[in-house]
Write a structure and sequence with these properties.
single chain; 421 residues; Creatine Amidinohydrolase, Chain A, domain 1; Creatine Amidinohydrolase; 5-stranded mixed sheet; globular
Length: 421
C-alpha cells in the first residue's frame, strides 16, 4: 500500500516567507487564489473556490513570525477548514448555500420546521444569503483580522496575478489606508521550493505517468488514433495505481500527437511519429513527462532530429544545479540546437516548475529573461519541444529534482526515439 505522508496543503514555510516578504518590503502576504490558499492553510476554499474570484477565501501570512497565520472562509467551508487546517485565527462570512446544524437544535416531538428555526435562532434580523458570496463581507472579515493584529495599515502583498481588477478595486476601497502591492512574486518564490510531501506527490505522479506511457507503447497498433492511445495510457495508470494500492489520480491530461501534422488528429501507421506528453495529478499536484516514439523503423531524418534533441537535453540539464541562473540553461540549450544545424530555433522556455495547480506549468520558467537561480528542492520539468508541420511533433521531457549537489531525474524511461509496433 502506498500512502502519502502528509495531508495536501499547509506546505508554506513561514521562515522562508518571512525572509522573502522582508526582501520585498511587505508586512504580510494575502492569498486569494484557491490553490495558493490550500498551499498556505492546508484546507480547501470549498465549492466557492470554483468561482475563481476573490472572496471565496483569504489566507494571511504575516512577515512577523510572532503573529499567527490567519484566514477568511465562507460558512459552507468552515467545518472542512477547521478539520484540516492548523490555523485557528479565522473569520467566516456567508455563502449562498443554506444549511442548519440540528445536532443542538432540540429533538423529541419538535417538528422539523421548529428544529430548523431553532438552529437559526442566533441569526441577525434580516439575514439574507448572497447569490454566491459577497466580496464586501469577505473583505470586512479580512479588515477585522488585520486590525486585530496591527496590520490594518501595513504593507500588504496580494496575489495580483490572480485577483480580477474589478475585485481589487473593492478590496482597495475597503482597506483604505493599507499600502497594497503585488505579492505574487513572493508566492511564486515560496511555491517553487517544495516540501518533502509535495515532492512525494510529484514523484508518484511521474511514476504512474510512466506506467501509462509503457502501456501505450506496448499496446499501440496500426489504425489507432489519439483516443485509443489515450485510453491505453489511462488504463496503464489505473493498473499501476491499483497494483500499488493508491487512490486513482484526480485527473490525467494527455497531449498526444500522431503523424506529420502536430495540430491535426493522426492515425498510427508505419513511419508515424507519436509524441506522448502526459500529466498525472495526485491531490492537485501535476507531474509532466514526454517521450517520442515511431511506429516501425525510424527514418534517417527522424533519427537526426531526435539525436539533436537528446544532445540539447544532455547539454542543458548538465547545467541544472543550485546557484545557476535559469536563463543560463536556456542559453546553452538553444546554443546546442543551433550547433546541431537548427539555426534560428527559438523556444520561449525549456521547462517550468511543477506543483499544485490547474495547469502543469508554473513559474519560474527556464527562459531567456529568467534571472532567478535554481535552489535545492525545486521540482522542474525540463523539456525540449519542436513541432514541425509536415514532419511531426516532438517533446523530450523529464521531471528533475534539485539537490544540494545538482539534480536527479524522477523519470526512468529511455530518452531515445523508440521504435514500436
Amino acid at each position: 500500500m502506498t500512502e502519502l505522508t502528509q495531508a495536501a496543503g499547509n506546505f508554506l514555510n513561514r521562515e522562508r516567507a518571512a525572509r522573502l516578504l522582508a526582501a520585498a518590503g511587505l508586512d504580510a502576504l494575502v492569498i486569494a487564489e484557491p490553490e495558493g490558499f490550500r498551499y498556505a492553510t492546508g484546507a480547501s476554499q470549498g465549492v466557492a473556490g470554483f468561482f475563481r474570484r476573490a472572496g471565496a477565501g483569504f489566507a494571511v501570512i504575516p512577515a512577523d513570525l510572532l503573529l499567527p497565520a490567519m484566514a477568511v472562509i465562507t460558512d459552507a467551508a468552515e467545518a472542512g477548514f477547521r478539520a484540516h487546517s492548523p490555523i485557528t485565527e479565522l473569520r467566516v462570512h456567508p455563502a449562498w448555500i443554506e444549511a442548519a446544524d440540528l445536532r443542538q437544535a432540540g429533538a423529541g416531538d419538535a417538528s422539523i420546521a421548529a428544529r430548523v428555526r431553532g438552529a437559526w435562532r442566533e441569526r441577525a434580523p434580516g439575514f439574507a444569503r448572497p447569490a454566491t458570496f459577497d466580496l464586501g463581507s469577505a473583505v470586512s472579515c479580512l479588515r477585522d483580522l488585520l486590525q486585530l493584529h496591527g496590520l490594518r495599515h501595513a504593507r500588504l502583498g496580494f496575489d495580483l496575478d490572480f485577483i480580477a481588477a474589478s475585485d481589487m478595486g473593492v478590496i482597495t476601497a475597503a482597506l483604505e489606508g493599507a499600502r497594497i502591492g503585488n505579492g505574487s512574486p513572493v508566492l511564486d518564490r515560496l511555491r517553487m521550493v517544495k516540501a518533502p510531501a509535495e515532492i512525494e506527490r510529484l514523484r508518484l505522479g511521474a511514476e504512474l505517468g510512466e506506467a501509462g506511457i509503457i502501456a501505450l507503447r506496448e499496446g499501440a497498433r496500426a489504425g489507432q488514433g489519439v483516443t485509443e492511445l489515450r485510453d491505453l495510457f489511462r488504463a496503464g495508470v489505473d493498473r499501476e495505481a491499483a497494483r500499488r494500492g493508491v487512490a486513482h489520480p484526480e485527473a490525467t491530461h494527455e497531449y498526444i500527437a500522431i503523424g506529420p501534422n502536430p495540430w491535426q488528429p493522426g492515425v498510427v501507421e508505419p513511419g508515424a511519429i507519436i509524441k506522448v506528453d502526459v500529466v498525472c495529478t495526485i491531490e492537485g499536484y501535476m507531474s509532466d513527462t514526454s517521450r517520442n516514439f515511431v511506429f516501425g523503423p525510424a527514418s534517417p531524418a527522424q533519427r537526426e532530429l531526435h539525436l539533436a534533441l537528446e544532445a540539447a537535453f544532455i547539454t542543458g540539464s548538465a547545467l541544472i544545479r543550485p546557484g545557476v541562473k535559469l536563463r543560463d540553461v536556456h542559453a546553452v540549450t538553444t546554443a546546442s540546437l543551433h550547433a546541431a544545424g537548427f539555426a534560428g530555433y527559438s523556444r520561449g522556455h525549456f521547462g517550468h516548475s511543477l506543483g499544485h495547480s490547474i495547469f502543469s506549468e508554473q513559474a519560474p520558467f527556464i527562459a531567456a529573461d529568467a534571472t532567478l537561480a535554481f535552489e535545492a528542492d525545486m521540482m522542474m520539468a525540463f523539456e525540449i519541444p519542436l513541432y514541425l508541420e509536415g514532419f511531426g511533433a516532438f517533446n523530450l521531457e523529464d521531471q528533475l529534482l534539485l539537490t544540494e549537489a545538482g539534480h536527479v531525474s524522477i523519470n526512468r524511461l529511455p530518452r531515445q526515439l523508440v521504435e514500436i509496433g
